[in-house]
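question for whoever is on the cluster today: can someone run the full assembly for these? two chains, 483 residues total. i dont have access anymore since they changed the login thing
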Amino acid sequence: MFELIRANRRKSIALVAGFVAFLALVGAVIGVLIGYGLVGTIMAVLISGGIAFASYWKADAIALSVSRAHPADPQQYQRLHNLVEGLCIASGLPKPRVYVVDDPAPNAFATGRNPRHAAIAVTTGLLAKMNRVELEGVLAHELSHIRNYDILVSTLAVTLVGSIAILTDVAIRLMWWNGGRVPRQGDHDNGNNPLAFVGFFLLVFAPIIARAMQATISRQRETLADVSACQMTRYPPGLISALEKLRDDTTVVHSASSATAHMWIEQPMSGVGDEGKLGRVHRLFDTHPPLEERIALLREL
Amino acid sequence: MLWIVLAIVAVLIVIAIVTYNGLIRSRNQVENAWSQIDVQLKRRIDLIPNLVETVKAYAAHEKETLDAVIRARNAAMAAPSDPHAQAAADTMMTGALRQIFALSESYPDLKANQNFLALQEELSATEGRVAYARQFYNDSVLNYNNKLQQVPTVIFASMLKFDKREYFEADESARDVPKIGF
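^ ran it for u. tokens below:
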């Protein structure tokens, strides 16, 4: 279990480093094609980073109001509070604020910029459908997101996606207006350079590739949270049983949107045609690994 | 030449400070975790009087079971701080509590009583908390021992008076499977 967690963290770092390298590549291509590569990249990162970190700072308030969550009364939701407190003792985390979302679909999410400003929300559907050990497994998964600073990691990923989107958008426009000439010493003519076409196609597809990388990071952090949850409770069957129930339940969460999809424990919207020819392409952009895969991994523990 | 030597010495000092601070933090976490276990055990003891009163209201003539719980509580409160005495008192308490909850099967009014249900939930949550506190203590000890015994630190750890910590282990009797009779 501990080995899996360490391996997962190494993979996270590799993915984020790869993402940054990809951003650098896009910046370099732009530098070759139209000049201003370095300046452009820095400005794009600053703009995208500014927006992303503003939303990261207020992550808890935003996420909770978008989902219409209300604080869970300790008297009414005694078991929920007790389970959260027990898990916080096991992990040494301060207790986050606990919220409830009125929705018949079983789901849960965690948010907040660090463990001291964190919040957990569960739907009434989850509370109704799960028994004690299953609920504990789900809560451990959410607390693991907080402990592993996943909200920070996904903010980094979003910053990188945003930077790439801004950079490529502006670059393509500049190329269009300039007619493809490089405004440098004047001795460079990229008209016949075949690499220019490659660079151009990279610019067009970069945002899509970036989104796929962001989804990969998200899936990998979900797996890390699953394994961390089992380390917290030392009881994998609880979470396995909860995931099996989620797999067999087909209700859709109403108060989720694609903007918040990545935070929930299971994809809130039904997959866009997971079978069929484009199935594998669609799966590349899933924010969560398929439930069958998650269950199989946990059984190995 | 002199600058290089000074730079190396400075780096070594920084490494030493960082390592020492890390060990101090780990050791303090171990001690904090140990006292957390006591906090949770005490919380369980505090819930007992309320439980006894609720049960008396419905099942006053079940004297032996109620007395067993009260005796267990007194023993737990009087037990000295050493881990073995604590564990023995703990086992006695768990056994007595189990009898009370088994009792509720014969008294449907008691079983349906809201107060009793809330207490049952609190007690089982507290048992969970005690278990988690012990788990966290063991995890902290693992973390501390790891840091202590790995290579650069192990060389000067005993000089600085850092010693290995012991894990919390279950009392022998807790490993016996409880017999449940119907």
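summary bc i know u wont read the tokens: The longest strand of chain A covers residues 97-101. Chain A has one domain: 2-61+149-299.
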